[in-house]
């Protein structure tokens, strides 16, 4: 028992070391790194939304190096084909037979850059891999290597020539994280660091695959009380039936509430937050901390909300303030 506890404390320290190591390359963006790690340790995929130049690609690439995982960056474009993603059958003239050529999806960490720039067939191929953790090429089905994590990015300001992800497909992402601009102090450090042509980008590997699987087991053992489980369900139900919770004005803006995946991922993400904070149990604050990222892309608002300038984050904030914690 003491050995298990010692290993858990060691893993918690390693997570802190991961943040320190990534910060050697990436300035700020601790929030984004935290969400990426939550996704990795709870087998959830992450959708990043932010304007260009906010180090989304650099952060994912650096994190893959620190974790010693295979990494592939796929630039989604309008002419991309599903075979460019998952692979295809090619004819081997020497053997006079077809053989499989695997695509870039066969990696541990996938960066789907500007995922909304590719048509539905390519998006569907990616999202099928995310859901099933397998790929079919020809008549053969291949299991994807573990861990398998997809981090997709989309640009919120450039909508021309894009193919917005359908709501049902967006729901497969554990979290949708809005990446914000750096602070003045952080931008000053970024400018100085990137202006130094002799900047050393060498970093150390902190976690192995074995460590990642062990951390997943540790997070799975974090306790969630029955009252908090009920609180999570109440939050999700408040997004579906806001009027029942005294949110009559907000009810006029909501077309569809969050799906059951919201309950599942709120539970998992809250466990990860508790583990990162070196606790064996989840607090209400852990649930509230991840509620925005887990629920914001799972709610569909109507045209009236758009006309009044109301977004899902505003609704979720109202829900968090209104729904009481179950006793």
Explain how this protein is built.
The chain is of the alpha/beta class and 327 residues long. It has 2 domains: 2-210, Rossmann fold (3-Layer(aba) Sandwich); 223-322, Magnesium chelatase subunit I, C-Terminal domain (Helicase, Ruva Protein, domain 3, Orthogonal Bundle), CATH 1.10.8. The protein has helices spanning 2-22, 30-42, 56-67, 82-86, 120-132, 167-170, 184-194, 209-220, 226-240, 248-251, 260-276, 284-295, 303-307, 312-322, and strands at 46-49, 71-75, 87-92, 97-102, 109-113, 134-137, 140-143, 149-154, 175-178, 254-256, 300-301. It has a 5-stranded parallel β-sheet with strand order 2-5-8-1-9. Strands 3-4 form a two-stranded antiparallel sheet. A two-stranded antiparallel ribbon has the order 6-7. It is globular and about 70 Å long.
Q: Which key terms come to mind for this protein?
A:
14 helices; 327 residues; 47% helix; alpha/beta; five-stranded parallel β-sheet; globular; Helicase, Ruva Protein, domain 3
Tally of structural domains: 2
What is the share of helical residues? 40-55%
* Mean pLDDT rating: 84
Q: State the helix count.
A: 14
**Main structural class:** alpha/beta
What is the level-2 CATH architecture name of the largest domain?
3-Layer(aba) Sandwich
- The poorly predicted ranges are none
Could you give the distance between the termini? 32 Å
Name of the level-1 CATH class of the largest domain: Alpha Beta
Report strand %.
Answer: 5-15%
What does the main sheet amount to?
5 strands, parallel
The ordered string of helix (H) and strand (E) elements is HHEHEHEEEHEEEHEHHHHEHHEHH
| Overall outline | globular
């Amino acid at each position: 028992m003491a050995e298990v506890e010692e290993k858990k404390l060691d893993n918690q320290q390693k997570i802190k070391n991961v943040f320190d190591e990534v910060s050697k390359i990436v300035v700020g963006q601790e929030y984004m790194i935290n969400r990426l790690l939550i996704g990795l340790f709870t087998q959830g995929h992450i959708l990043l939304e932010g304007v260009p130049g906010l180090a989304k690609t650099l952060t994912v690439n650096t994190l893959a190096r620190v974790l010693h995982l295979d990494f592939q960056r796929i630039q989604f474009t309008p002419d991309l084909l599903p075979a460019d993603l998952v692979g295809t059958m090619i004819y081997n003239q020497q053997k006079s037979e077809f053989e499989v050529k695997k695509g870039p999806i066969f990696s541990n960490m996938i960066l789907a850059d500007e995922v909304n720039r590719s048509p539905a067939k390519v998006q569907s191929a990616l999202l099928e891999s995310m859901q099933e953790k397998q790929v079919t090429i020809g008549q053969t089905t291949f299991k994807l290597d573990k861990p398998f994590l997809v981090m997709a990015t989309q640009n919120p300001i450039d909508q021309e020539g894009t193919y917005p992800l359908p709501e049902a497909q967006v729901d497969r992402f554990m979290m949708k994280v809005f990446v914000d601009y750096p602070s003045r102090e952080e931008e000053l450090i970024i400018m100085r660091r990137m202006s130094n042509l002799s900047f050393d980008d060498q970093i150390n590997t902190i976690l192995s695959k074995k460590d990642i699987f062990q951390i997943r087991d540790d997070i799975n053992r974090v306790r969630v009380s029955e009252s908090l489980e009920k609180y999570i369900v109440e939050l999700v139900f408040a997004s579906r039936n806001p009027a029942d919770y005294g949110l009559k004005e907000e009810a006029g803006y909501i077309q569809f509430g969050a799906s059951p995946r919201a309950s599942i991922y709120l539970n998992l993400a809250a466990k990860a937050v508790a583990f990162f904070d070196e606790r064996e149990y989840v607090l209400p604050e852990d649930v509230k901390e991840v509620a925005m990222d887990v629920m914001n892309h799972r709610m569909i608002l109507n045209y009236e909300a758009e006309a009044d300038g109301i977004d899902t984050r505003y609704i979720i904030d109202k829900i968090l303030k209104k729904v009481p914690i179950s006793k």
